[in-house]
């Protein structure tokens, strides 16, 4: 199950972690204030105005998101398990197993979210838990999810998360054995330089880890076969051999970046920003000197600087365009019938300015072009998308900005649809798994011609299975 300190979990079950100062309101608590101050330092480092309307409440929003996302430090496993154990008779001295005490109990597809300890980005977890009750004692099913969530709501990495959930349940229920299997997805942001070099960049990295105790301690035990078979009943096919490889290498892309040479130019890290992130770690109840966290502040700052506010001119990928180009195109197309043309599924990555959490997705652009004229190059439109994506953003704004910009060289008839997944929708309080957001901007003919608008929207690609 992993080299964990058993005494640590016994203490966790009995005592938990201190609950802070309940007499203070959330906004008045020292931890909240410290995080807000640190976020202001980060925003200054990005060249942003903390008094800008969209950013005024960002420090408090970030503080709420981070403290909510790490609330597991102040929760006690004992409070969850105690009072939720119920007597249930089962076979004690007979051959085989029966329901209740002695039979395998599995809870599948628990959606959890955690913050990666290496880069402070949230990652998504599909958790499957099973245990074999003993001593005529079973646990309320909802408590399996709640115990798993306690450890997910801490700075984590997949293998340790699986081990901590497994051992906590083993000590809390005292079963014949516990099995935990996690399917983890870590958002994989390219940096501003590499995004042009790797157009097929994948947005997620996967990791599969497991942990077992008692009858599940041996990874080749028949109990694991039973557990995995019950997962397959719901269409969850797991290749157990891949779990061995997941543990041998760092799964966090930020550490892969630090090992790979992506640029000959090495930018110095803003030390004030690093100090700010260190303060955030301390305010969340973590020890910034813990070996797994030593490089985390610098990695987070390096990633965040991808969204630095710079006073760039509107020159995209070596091209500069103005309304004159559109006028010349209109002259050339005079007398020719215009047809709907499009560039679909242009990927983008961005950072929500309200919570400093990433969002990403695809952009679809439609325009009216005359038959026989060369279509606008996809690389140029992709450059426009990246230009506005790599900033602190909101989806509504980036949709409008792309539409207004591409009219300068596509003419006035433009439609833009942005589809995105927001980590703030799944990693914070509402935790709406599978939710996505679509925004639309229409200019010129697309704003008045419902038929043309409908034709474009009907041709948008349908989603395929997630990250196959």
From TrEMBL:
Catalytic reactions on record: GTP + H2O = 7,8-dihydroneopterin 3'-triphosphate + formate + H(+)
Keywords: GTP-binding, Hydrolase, Metal-binding, Nucleotide-binding, Tetrahydrobiopterin biosynthesis, Zinc
Function: GTP cyclohydrolase 1 is the first enzyme in the biosynthetic pathway leading to folic acid.
Residues of the GTP cyclohydrolase I domain: 35-187, 276-459
Family: Belongs to the GTP cyclohydrolase I family.
Organism from which the protein derives: Morus notabilis
Protein name in the entry: GTP cyclohydrolase 1
Record's GO cellular component terms: cytoplasm
InterPro entries: GTP-CH-I_C/QueF, GTP-CH-I_N, GTP_CycHdrlase_I, GTP_CycHdrlase_I_dom
UniProt-listed GO biological process terms: folic acid biosynthetic process; tetrahydrobiopterin biosynthetic process; tetrahydrofolate biosynthetic process
Keyword Cell inner membrane: no
Complex formation: Homodimer.
This enzyme's EC code(s): 3.5.4.16
GO molecular function list: GTP binding; GTP cyclohydrolase I activity; zinc ion binding
The protein's annotated pathway: Cofactor biosynthesis; 7,8-dihydroneopterin triphosphate biosynthesis; 7,8-dihydroneopterin triphosphate from GTP: step 1/1
